[in-house]
Amino acid sequence: MKICIFCGANSSLDSDVEVMAKKVMTFFGEKKIELVYGGAAIGVMGMLATDLIVRGGRVTGIIPQLLMTKEVAHGGLSELIVTKDMHERKQKMYKMSDAFLIFPGGMGTLDELFEIVTWRQIGIHAKPIAILNINGYYDSLLEFLDHAVKQGLIKQKDRDIIFASPSWEEIWDHFSGFKHG
Fold it and tell me: Across 1-108, where does the E strand assignment appear?
């Protein structure tokens, strides 16, 4: 199985993000799950990749040429794919992955989350998407989405595309039991 993780190129000030990253990467290593991610050696991205590499796991990074130096491409990956732009990066990430896990992150992470959700909504893919909601990081976003449902601007079935939990075990159960459309 290949799981794409969307996360920040910056480091989190919440130390529980690092604790959860190590927990999830330990699981990946034990279950031989391949990490597909943005290819950087910095921030939450770099922490996840480095941790899995140290455990002997397979890590594929996908980074656009524009970010090769800005995000400092990780030098120790199993595979590094350089794309011409962000759109090609996301397409490759989506095609290579069986599921999508969203860690805390910034604007780029939100962009990736909403694009993968929209692609599922319109039928481009039928893969599971889950937010690892560490210490309520995404609470306000999830509340906003529920508000948008109440306002009639998002259908409940589309809101339900996003599974969210603070528990990696619950997310793994969601991924494992997911019925691909």
Answer: 2-6, 34-37, 59-64, 79-83, 99-102
